[in-house]
Amino acid sequence: xxxxxxxxxxxxxxxxxxxxxxxxxxxxxxxxxxxxxxxxxxxxxxxxxxxxxxxxxxxxxxxxxxxxxxxxxxxxxxxxxxxxxxxxxxxxxxxxxxxxxxxxxxxxxxxxxxxxxxxxxxxxxxxxxxxxxxxxxxxxxxxxxxxxxxxxxxxxxxxxxxxxxxxxxxxxxxxxxxxxxxxxxxxxxxxxxxxxxxxxxxxxxxxxxxxxxxxxxxxxxxxxxxxxxxxxxxxxxxxxxxxxxxxxxxxxxxxxxxxxxxxxxxxxxxxxxxxxxxxxxxxxxxxxxxxxxxxxxxxxxxxxxxxxxxxxxxxxxxxxxxxxxxxxxxxxxxxxxxxxxxxxxxxxxxxxxxxxxxxxxxxxxxxxxxxxxxxxxxxx
Length: 380
Description:
By secondary structure, the chain is an alpha/beta fold. The chain contains 17 helices and 11 strands. The strands form 4 sheets. The chain has a 5-stranded parallel sheet, with helices on both faces. A two-stranded antiparallel sheet has the order 3-4. A two-stranded parallel ribbon has the order 8-9.
């Protein structure tokens, strides 16, 4: 029997956990042509939610474009990724129609089309020309969506995933200005900007001095409620023939803190451990937690050994008390930290290494089970 809990990849179908209200809100905004800025910490299910949304609105006749900016490191990369996303919509049509349409909407791009043995077409572009005229090409790309939508009498959705990566580019300000100059004129086009770094996303969209200031509705994605997650866990254990009581479910959610990724991961392993005996009890929950920590022992130990003394102090403090005013005298005295500058340097380094992240106005450890490992192995 297949394990009903999924983690580490996009979660679709029956494995998609609730998010009914978020899905409804997103679809409503998209159908009204509104822009949305959606952000949350990593592994909260942003991509799964937006893919579910894309599938739903696509079935309602909306043109959809999904652009993943995670691999992007340069302005040129942005143009290339965007061009591939735009052209992929037309690639499903016959070759003659594809070439004709692409020529109309992207006149500066010359596609290279390679026909495969099975009849599929592989599309690439003259990168030298694309990069030489990148700003002009980007202008065409940003106008291609409304042209396609108008020609088909439809509204359109454009999703930029990991949009905060733009802020890391040398030409970030120029790129943001070009994007703003186009999307502010578009009617019946909804742009959804997804990001996993809240402080970077808010910097891009809430700073009055940035080009994209207030260009959409802010939509912070929160954890799934314990009530919804409890129902999801119970249903998936029961439908696969495994008994589990409310007490066990409450303990699971207490351990995972209703974090979408870690809850799916924990339940996946618990299900594996219990599917033969057809029953999951408190002892099984405890042993699953210990198993998870043990499996990451070498990795967590390596992370710990690489930390400076100030970094270790900060990590331990966050493992025991996340709601902290890090620069208050109370905190500095409690943890014997003499230098604010050293603490600031530690925070910057730990953020860069993605060991900590900032969410809801305070810092937290990025890996929930690293926190559990510190609680059990290191102590305060």
